[in-house]
Amino acid sequence: MTQKLIVIVGATGGQGGSVVSSFLKAGGWRIRGLTRNPESDRAKALTAQGVEMVKADIGDLASLETAFDGAHVIFAITDYYENFWTKGWEKSMEIEYAQGTNMAKAASKVPTLEHYLWSTLPHSTRVSEGLALVPHFEAKGRVDEFIREDKALLERTTFCFFTTFAINLTHYEVFKPIYLPAAKRWIQIYPADPNSAYPSLGDHRVNTGIFVHSLVSNRPPGGTYVRCSVEDLTLESFLALWGRASGIAPEPKSTKVIQVSPEAYIDLYGHMGEEQARQWEFSRILKETGALNRYGIHVQEAQEFMSKDAIASLVSPEESLRNIDWKAHGF
Questions:
Q1: pLDDT tens readout for residues 32-58
Q2: 4-329 to CATH, choices 3.40.50.720, 3.50.50.60, 3.40.50.11810, 2.60.120.460
Q3: Residue 117 and residue 158 in contact, taking contact as beta carbons nearer than 8 Å
Q4: Where is the NmrA-like domain (predicted)?
Q5: How far apart (Å, rounded) are the C-alpha atoms in residues 3 and 1?
Q6: What are phi and psi of 75, to 5 degrees?
Q7: Could you count the other beta carbons within 10 Å of the beta carbon of residue 265?
């Protein structure tokens, strides 16, 4: 029997690579990974494992049409922060929207396509009725609207909300815990209540693939929004979990989240501070108004579509944090 083809955007990255790994482990699929550089060490390693590595640029529609040819399943993802640091938030949104719509356009032309999994986030201005604009959410959400206009593609699409990566503490200085000798505590500073919800994906390099494979194996109805998350925490409980899992601050009351005003936070952390302040304001609006439901987006938990074994294989936030070499990151 001919194997079906899954095409994975960003196959050499953390999330895309996780999807590749899950489908390699499961077997029974032809796997095509997309990358800008098939000659990279990571791409060559995947080729050696039997993955068909194809050069493609998600900013180039023609290259995507070629790369998606013959696909039965496509996992599509963008990286807002790839351009944020050098081009700013407005240009980054513009680029991300173009990339997302390019992938949707190319996918819509694939006659063999059965399932399109799009990694997205809420359309902040639309959902909040103009009260909040979160740049790293906004372009993805606008791509959702583009997909929803294409009824044939919508019927084959699953919208995936992946929650916060455990490894963000090492990726972005704004999240890195700070030690206060006078208080004998490790702190984080946020423009939000310390008890604000902080859902965690855990290890995105493992769990993304587990979620995606499960959703492909047990496909939700077309147009379904699915939250891919492992544990619901708060800002305060996540920092305490980090302290215990890392061994850096295992004692009770050895960590503390400090709330400051959005203005003070932006003054401290600049453009990234503004990005995060906007996100936390949007989160507050969602909590107080139930805006997603009001807008007609009813989000289901990915676990509803997963087997018990798949759920059990997810790497928890605690284990994810324990597995990080904190000394290598300056702790």
A1: 999 999 999 999 999 999 999 999 999
A2: 3.40.50.720
A3: yes
A4: 3-247
A5: 6
A6: -105, 115
A7: 22
